[in-house]
Amino acid sequence: MDSNLLFWTAALSNMGMVVVLAAAGVRMRRRNQISRHRRLMQAGSVLVILFLPSYFAKLHFLGRENMDVWSSGAVWVLRFHEVFVLLMLLFGFLALRRGLALARTGNATLDPSDPPAAPERARGHRLAGWMAVGTAVAGLLTACLVLLGMYQRAGLV
């Protein structure tokens, strides 16, 4: 196994943990455990944020993959994966912004003594969050396909 495969295997594990944390965060929200929801989503965000500099370090030290040996189908899967990751970043950022605004201005805890949350803020946070989780799952699935192709080209599968 070469260094690039090792890096992408670790990256897949990282993305898997992001999805696990997001799913657990959704579960905590459904149980009305808002502080746990927030902590799990923040932990997932930290994993995403930590991946970004590691990717740039990978490019600097290990270089890019040799796409000349990839089939056109494999390249398309990679491009779909990249789109899902980009959408995950955008929707995740939007969910974070709306969640912070909701916490500052509305009843994020559903405590009856707090003022009621603005319904549009809650809906916006929920929609952005679901889009972030959905695109993260799609990104993980396509990452599995991309990595499988990389293992196949390396003769490891």
What's the overall average pLDDT, rounded?
Answer: 92
What is the strand content? under 5%
Report the strand count: 0
List low-pLDDT spans: none
> What distance separates the N and C termini?
11 Å
The number of distinct helices, counting runs of at least 4 residues, comes to 4
| SSE string, helices as H and strands as E | HHHH
Helix content: over 70%
Secondary-structure class: mainly alpha
Q: Rg from C-alpha positions?
A: 18 Å
- Please summarize the sheet with the most strands: none
Task: Say what oligomer this is.
Answer: single chain
Label the overall shape.
elongated
Q: Can you walk through the features of this model?
A:
By secondary structure, this protein is mainly alpha-helical. 80% of the residues lie in helices and 0% in strands. It has four helices and no strands. The longest helix has 35 residues, at 119-153. It is elongated. The model has no long low-confidence stretch (mean pLDDT 92).
What labels describe this entry?
single chain
